[in-house]
């Protein structure tokens, strides 16, 4: 179908809603990754693999949770730049609010995880014995620690300690999200106007040199926000950029290095640094490719975007709790049984995410938006 002239108009410089759809897609990919890593870990034990397989193609984007997390970090940099402090004295307020924006949902998710794990205390261990997946080692096994430790982990520990949380393991990203928020908000408060672009370039390169690619992705996302007005619609080149980003970043990591050029290249695709670069290229493609924007602005993907953070927070407790119990209770589970378990778990995850959106996510956002508005008004009067 030919692209209409209206689709070639440069997108407005406000909210890029197609990126919400991208975030929703990435959140689903993380959930898919965790489910199949838990119950059929064979394809995810492909570190050191040889030959060529579907994991060495962009199709791996459908289950490559590593790449999705890189997309999250780059998108966070973009969004944080859009909401950056207007003045230096606003920075402490916005950084503090950013902590609560992350910590309150993380606290709720950690408490939910405790109840699921406590309700099915032996399910993870039993499922690990059947599937052989080492992924379950990132979840508490009996005896289950008390509830207050789950609250502490979700509200504080995940923000100050490295390593995998053992109640709800996706919360390991919260510390990086907070550090990235401090980096972008603090940097924007200190550096003004045209100086921001070279500062973001220098920051991203510097973080890459010290091998902190996650924070470098924040700088890259903020840089794309600064340059968005210069990015013109280019359907063909934008599509090629998306494909290149998937080749570099979405290829599942772990291909063995070898003497041949092909193995040497494949061994690096999808690895640290490459996936962050790929994520940034994908975002560029969304900013420049009309058909891609149209696709991800459709209602279904926009709804996934609204559910993205809740889904990210609630899906693992379902996997290590009731899904693991069902996997053991109905063993042996064949291909059809695993597909049915996946479908039921997915429906349950979306239902729980929808409840989380209404009960936690939206009230937190509304409350913080009110505080931000009042706080900025008082700072302006001071």
From TrEMBL:
Domain of life according to the entry: Bacteria
PANTHER family: ACETYLTRANSFERASE, PUTATIVE (AFU_ORTHOLOGUE AFUA_4G08520)-RELATED
Full protein name: Acyltransferase
Pfam families linked to this entry: Acyl_transf_3 (PF01757)
Keyword annotations of the record: Acyltransferase, Membrane, Transferase, Transmembrane, Transmembrane helix
Acyltransferase domain mapped to chain residues: 17-350
InterPro entries: Acyl_transf_3_dom, Acyltransferase_3
Transmembrane spans: 21-40, 60-81, 102-123, 172-191, 197-225, 237-254, 274-292, 304-328, 334-360
Enzyme class: transferase
């Amino acid at each position: 179908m030919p692209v209409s002239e209206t689709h070639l108009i440069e997108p407005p410089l406000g909210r890029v809603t197609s990126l919400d759809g991208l975030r929703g897609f990435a959140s689903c990919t993380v959930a898919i990754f965790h489910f199949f890593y838990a119950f059929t870990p064979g394809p995810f034990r492909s570190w050191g693999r040889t030959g060529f397989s579907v994991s060495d193609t962009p199709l791996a984007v459908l289950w490559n949770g590593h790449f999705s997390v890189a997309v999250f970090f780059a998108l966070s940099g973009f969004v944080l730049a859009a909401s950056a402090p207007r003045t230096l004295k606003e920075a402490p307020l916005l950084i503090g609010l950013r902590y609560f924006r992350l910590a309150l949902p993380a606290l709720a998710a950690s408490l939910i995880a405790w109840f699921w794990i406590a309700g099915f205390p032996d399910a993870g261990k039993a499922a690990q014995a059947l599937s052989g997946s080492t992924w379950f080692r990132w979840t508490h096994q009996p005896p289950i620690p008390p509830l207050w430790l789950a609250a502490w982990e979700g509200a504080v520990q995940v923000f100050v300690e490295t390593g995998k949380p053992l109640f709800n393991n996706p919360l390991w990203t919260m510390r990086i999200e907070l550090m990235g928020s401090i980096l972008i908000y603090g940097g924007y408060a200190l550096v003004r106007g045209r100086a921001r672009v070279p500062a973001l370039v220098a920051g991203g390169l510097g973080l890459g040199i010290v091998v902190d690619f996650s924070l470098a992705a924040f700088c890259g996302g903020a840089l794309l926000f600064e340059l968005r007005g210069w990015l013109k619609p280019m359907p063909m080149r934008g599509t090629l950029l998306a494909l290149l980003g998937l080749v570099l970043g979405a290829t599942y990591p772990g291909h063995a290095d070898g003497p041949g050029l092909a193995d040497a290249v494949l061994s690096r695709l999808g690895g640290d640094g490459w996936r962050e670069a790929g994520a940034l290229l994908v975002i560029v493609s969304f900013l420049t490719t009309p058909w891609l924007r149209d696709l991800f602005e459709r209602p279904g993907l926009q709804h996934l975007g609204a559910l993205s953070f809740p889904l990210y927070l609630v899906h693992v407790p379902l996997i290590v709790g009731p899904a693991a119990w069902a996997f053991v209770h109905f063993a042996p589970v064949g291909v059809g049984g695993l597909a049915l378990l996946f479908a039921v778990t997915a429906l349950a995850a979306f239902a729980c995410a929808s409840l989380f959106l209404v009960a936690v996510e939206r009230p937190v956002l509304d409350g913080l938006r009110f505080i931000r508005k009042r706080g900025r008004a008082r700072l302006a009067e001071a």
